[in-house]
Amino acid sequence: MSNKVRKAVIPVAGLGTRLLPVTKSVPKELLPIVDVPAIQVIVEECMASGIEEVIFITGRGKGAIEDHFDFSYELENILESRGKSKELEAVKKASNLIRTITVRQKKPLGLGHAILQAKDVIGDEPFLVVLPDDIISADPPCAKQLIDVYDKYGEGVVSILQVADDEVSRYGIIDGETWEDDLVRVRVMVEKPAPAESPSNLAIIGRYILPPEIFTYLEETEVGAGGEIQLTDALQRLARERALIGYKFTGRRHDTGDRFGYLTANIDAALRRPDLSKKLWTYIKSLDENDFK
Ligand code: G1P
User: What is the pLDDT of residue 85?
Assistant: First the structure.
């Protein structure tokens, strides 16, 4: 068994209902962050974190995601013959990025069920899970920060973030005792609790390092919150029977499945781009709230 985290599972089967109408015919993972599809931002984070292979768990209508990471001979030939070298480079970048594998989740039975579909492809080694709605600007990348914690302690790791009281019901919430500065030994996990019943304000964000034992737990997990097989329930068992570390990552997180988070992810990315940053700052500073009333 390899102890190195080499593979990433990225579930992309979600419907994107919070972003309708645009997601009616466009998979939310292909919506642009400036001019790069959100899913490519995620795959680039995986690569920058040392990941060698990405496994997409897909559903109906998500074929365009695979196409994006595949070669596009027709388009490449046209760009080449027209001498459009910059555009050609951008198109080739996506197809040259990394080895990708696609596994279809045939029924929408929840996040836990989606992850379970990767069992045969992962085999007997620890792996990264990235939920692509969560785009995180961070240096080093958030996935790399988690891998470093895993390499040090050899136990499962989930990224955590303090959220407001009225937001706990949107997340998996953990509780436990402080282990080190940014680390919590997880004791309790609840998926989407009502604020009055929430054990804390520490929410799980979409980056996890999981040991292969999680597949056995997932197979034995019964339908939970929202009528779905919840990853959180299998993680609760992992925390009880082995160990699970909550890690307070460094970085700015954007929930791109939500309109506002999608906008802030774009602003953040544009302000980091040398070709756009100065112009955008000037534009933002020129704005007057009264002009929009
Ligand atoms: C999922 C997980 C939840 C986690 C969240 C992070 O929920 O089930 O535990 O806190 O992602 O974004 P979802 O957003 O898919 O409902």
Answer: 84
Confirm or reject: Cβ of 262 under 6 Å from ligand 1: no
Let me know if residue 103 belongs to a domain.
Answer: yes
Query: Cβ(111) to ligand 1 under 6 A?
Result: yes
The answer, yes or no, to whether any atom of ligand 1 lies below 6 A from the CB of 132, is no
User: Is 290 among the domain residues?
Assistant: no
Does residue 47 fall inside a structural domain? yes
- CATH code, 99: 3.90.550.10
| DSSP-assigned letters across all residues of the chain | ---S--EEEEE-----GGGTTGGGTS-GGGSEETTEEHHHHHHHHHHHTT--EEEEEE-TT-HHHHHHTS--HHHHHHHHHTT-HHHHHHHHHHHHS-EEEEEE--S---HHHHHHTTHHHH-SS-EEEE-TTEEEE-SS-HHHHHHHHHHHH-SEEEEEEE--GGGGGGSEEEEEEEEETTEEEEEEEEES--GGG-S-SEEEEEEEEE-TTHHHHHHTPPP-GGGS--HHHHHHHHHHHS-EEEEE--SEEEETTSHHHHHHHHHHHHHT-TTTHHHHHHHHHH--GGGG-
When comparing pLDDT for 286 and 75, which is higher? 286
Let me know if residue 210 belongs to a domain.
yes
pLDDT tens digits, one per residue of 143-153: 999 999 999 99
pLDDT at 111: 94
Q: Highest mean pLDDT range out of 50-64, 90-104, 117-131?
A: 117-131
- 48 CA distance to ligand 1 centroid (A)? 23
pTM of the model: 0.92
Residue 116, domain extent: 7-273
What's the domain count of the chain? 1
